[in-house]
Specification:
Structural class: mainly alpha
Number of helices: 11
Oligomer: single chain
CATH architecture of the largest domain: Orthogonal Bundle
Number of domains: 2
CATH class of the largest domain: Mainly Alpha
Number of strands: 0
Distance between the termini: 64 Å
Helix content: over 70%
Order of helices and strands: HHHHHHHHHHH
Shape: extended
């Protein structure tokens, strides 16, 4: 008798769960549809205008690639890349800006990530304040940080490095904190029971578990920061972005196309190199072959 009552109770509870799940699913998709329609209305998204505007986009891209003939291929490419020496020098400045900003931002953000992980700090006030600091750092776009630092320190790479560093420490601190909150507590408890302090717990309990994810996010961030270093050049932060902005301003579309190809090739190379190193780090070199 008790078995049948338990079964009946289970059936009622399961039916209530199914009804509740159905209601919440319907509400979710209804809200999704409403938000989608409102977004189309507010942004004035028009498929007809999109289709009509695509050819103009193609025309702009075509202007960025000058005529190149097979018989005069070398001469045409040489003329297209007339400023290759200056552009490569600017690219080097951009790469160094991205590298320095990644190192500084990742170091500072990584240190703050331990204080931004709820499972690693006892004080809720420290956790809350650190989280808000990281949010401010990453919420403000890096180009806005660049404008502020250009006003403070003048035109040049320093403003770009500082802008990307601030945004990087906010993003890396958030990502690293999420990794920290998902580590196993067993090593930490073992170190604590052996008499280790908080720094020992972080160094020997958390860091070995989180390091592969740290490295993966860092390589990904380097790629992002190369793009960011290019963009902040638009507001006077130096690098190849300044050359790109000048070319577009002066309507030198062929120069802009050449510079864009250099940036794209550079990012592709960084992505392939970082992928190989990341696979080697986690012991999966065969994935890169």
């Amino acid at each position: 008798m008790s078995v049948s009552l338990a079964a009946a109770q289970f059936e009622r509870q399961y039916a209530e769960y199914r009804r509740s799940k159905t209601v919440w699913t319907v509400l979710f998709w209804a809200l999704f549809a409403v938000c989608f329609v409102v977004s189309l209305a507010v942004t004035r998204f028009d498929v007809v205008a999109l289709v009509e505007g695509l050819p103009r986009t193609t025309d702009f891209i075509v202007k960025m690639i000058p005529p190149i003939g097979w018989s005069t291929f070398g001469e045409d490419v040489g003329e297209w890349y007339w400023g290759i020496g200056k552009w490569l020098n600017s690219l080097l400045n951009t790469l160094l800006m991205a590298y320095l900003a990644t190192v500084l931002g990742t170091t500072i953000g990584g240190a703050l990530s331990f204080l931004a992980a709820r499972n690693l700090v006892k004080s809720y006030a420290v956790y809350w304040i650190t989280r808000r600091v990281l949010e401010i750092a990453r919420t403000v776009p890096d180009i806005v940080w660049a404008l502020l630092f250009v006003l403070a320190f003048g035109i040049g790479p320093l403003a770009g490095v500082l802008a990307i560093t601030v945004h990087t420490l906010g993003a890396q601190g958030k990502l690293f904190a999420e990794v920290n909150e998902n580590v196993s507590p067993l090593p930490i408890e073992g170190i604590r029971s052996a008499g280790g302090n908080w720094l020992h717990e972080m160094r020997y309990g958390v860091l070995p578990q989180a390091l592969p994810n740290y490295m993966s996010y860092t390589f990904w961030r380097i790629e992002l920061n190369v793009r960011s270093a290019t963009i902040v050049g638009f507001v006077g932060a130096g690098g190849i972005g300044h050359d790109l902005f000048t070319s577009i301003q002066l309507l030198y579309f062929a120069d802009a196309g050449a510079i864009l190809l250099i940036v794209v090739a550079t990012i592709m190379g960084i992505d392939m190199l970082s992928e190989r190193y990341r696979h080697r780090l986690i012991g999966k070199e065969q994935l890169s072959q």
